[in-house]
Amino acid sequence: MDPNLKRILPYMKNYKHHVVWNIVFNIFYALFSTLSFISLIPMLQVLFDQAERITEKPVYKGIWDIMNYGKQSLYFYITRLTETNGAQYALLLVVCLVISTFLLKNLFNYLASNHLTVIKNSVLRDIRNEVYAKIISLPISYYSEKRKGDVMARMLGDINEVQNSFFNILELIVKEPMTILFTICAMIAISFKLTLFVFVFIPISGFIISRIGKTLKTKSVKVQSEGGYLISIVEETLTGMKVVKGYNAENTFSKKFTGTVENILKLSNSIGRKNNLASPMSEFLGIIVIAVLLWFGGNMVLVDRGLDGKPLLDAAKFLAYMGLAYNILTPAKGISKASYSVKSGLAAAERVFEILAVENSITDPADAKEMGEFKENITLKNVNFGYTDELVLKNFSLTIPKGKTIALVGQSGSGKSTIANLLTRFYDINDGYIAIDGHELHHITMHSLRKNIGLVTQESILFNDTIKNNLLIGKPDATDEEIINALKVANAYEFVKELPEGIETGIGDAGGKLSGGQKQRLSIARAVLKNPPIMILDEATSALDTESEKLVQVALENMMQNRTSVVIAHRLSTIQNADLIVVMHKGQIVEQGTHAELLALDGTYSKLVSLQSFEQA
Q1: CA distance 435 to 374
Q2: For position 47, what pLDDT does the model report?
Q3: DSSP labels for 382-423?
Q4: Which residues contact 531 (CB under 8 A, 6 or more apart)?
Q5: Which residue windows are transmembrane per the record (predicted)?
Q6: What does the pLDDT average to over 146-175?
Q7: CATH number of this structure's domain 3-356
Q8: How far apart (Å, rounded) are the C-alpha atoms in residues 503 and 537?
Q9: With contact defined as beta carbons under 8 Å apart, do 519 and 511 qualify?
Q10: What is the mean pLDDT of the segment spanning 336-340?
Q11: I need a surface site. Which of 52, 121, 291, 579 has the fewest CB within 10 A?
């Protein structure tokens, strides 16, 4: 059994009663699909005046005699109706019988399809929920290596492909095979000799179709992979539209896009040709068998005679037999098409389960405890860390007392933002020790740790929603009054109250309707509303103009009152009032002290201040 099939089956266990009913109704569908053709025999016999005459009512002899009892009873009533009311009433009886069998056949098909629809849609929902939960739980490091477009393609397109094609397997293993089985049983009952040709046809056609579809799964994986790359290109183009246009890079991105589209076209055409070949190939092979049956069966009706001088096969049974033989073609085609789509579904499932199989490297250990009230300090001791083999922090040690503002400064690449990533446990240290009030971070649950930390990043991350809902991310149960107070602290209420709908105003994709300073002040308001004891500000003013910076700086000072703050600063003018300034270079501390103390040292910090003063002058 395919390993991806094994992965999907557990999802179906939750809906096993739907699976059972689907199988039951499919069996009844297959039974009445066969009976609908068998019921043509008495109708044709009445038409040709060849109906078997039974004048005595048959006696029921038990379950094993039920088929014979049913047949005898039917011909008894046909005989009685013909003798008492005329042949047209007997014909009406068998016509009603034909209509009834076809009605029941389609009714059971409808009921089976309904249960299959519930299974497909429910499993699709469950897989989507699990994949999204996995996407949310995976560490930041996973997304630094993966294309977002490919993850989106697996989340949306591949899961849909699993739904659309994979669940054909229920028909592949129940509905169509049972139809073929019942049909062949009926055909054997009518003529064993003719049915031998059908036994030859099925394995030959199955072998040919399997050979055609042998490479289908591999090509399906390639198509889905290219589809992920395509979405990634579109996502990057939309995100970086200003750069694309500003650098006249439209042709470069268009070539990447059209090249990927061409690859998808070639692979899709190849898959399509094989898919399209399945149905006509199985039908053509079936028609060959039908032709052979017509020749041999026709001879049995018209030429060959038994010892009693009667034809080896009467005309009514032969016509019904041919209907049954053709009835095999539909499920045979269904099996061939379903087997192809299942391969495509398995290829899609493989990509989906690749995400679910990713091990989360940052998890809560079994003995992790909730973080209590923050009382004393944050300690980093001999911390070593690298995103790759090269270390970004080397034997880094620092103590951050409660209620103090600690500023981290230094050139780009010195490891400042890495400290923020480690304190929030977006990454785990290679070795060393990070603790809050003496409790190591990896012994504190991530949820309770992050609940006590507010984060304001250099890039204002806002969502396409209202101002209110963007702020509620930090505190979902906050009142409008609390939201307005947070906006006032963040120096943002002045512009928010002027908006058409106030805090209910939509801000567009990534806050595109607002200026950089307005977006940053909303980010600060979100952190203020959360009201955590520890605040991390990662270069929160570096992307702003001077006027916006002043407004944001006032907001930051308001927010940092009575809080423990770690400020990662690019503009040194914003951190002169910090309780401790830590100067970093290549992952190590080279100086630390207050602003005045560091200027007096006339070292690295003093040079950085001089450079920035010169740049601003």
Answers
A1: 11
A2: 55
A3: EEEE-SSSS-SEEEEEEEEETT-EEEEEESTTSSHHHHHHHH
A4: 454, 475
A5: 20-48, 89-108, 180-209, 284-303
A6: 73
A7: 1.20.1560.10
A8: 24
A9: yes
A10: 65
A11: 291
